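Sanity check record (used in CI):
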Amino acid sequence: MSTFDNKAYARVVENGIQAVEAVQELRNAGYLSENIYVIDHDEDRTGEIAEVARANEVGIEEEGALSAIANIFRSRGDELRAKIVSLGFTQSEAEFYERELDLGKVLVIVSRV
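Expected output for General stress protein:
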């Protein structure tokens, strides 16, 4: 939808159920499914939420090949911050969101990148 600006949007929710609801709300507001991502601190749970919500996981296409390869050697926190930055957020924003993920929350993102 052309009326939205180019800044990425993020919403922190408490759990997977709220993440699915947030994704649906974004779709209803006109955001395209291919621009909606979910991130959870647990990689398996990210996949499960993404599947149920019909949203995306951050992958090589979003991160770039070098960053995706580097993630093999990164801690989970470093990997999550790199994924968040790849979707259009600053490093300090990524640090904030990663701390929220550490608390068991889920991140729903609309990417403009």
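The chain has one domain: 9-110. If this sentence no longer matches the regenerated tokens, the check is flagged for review.
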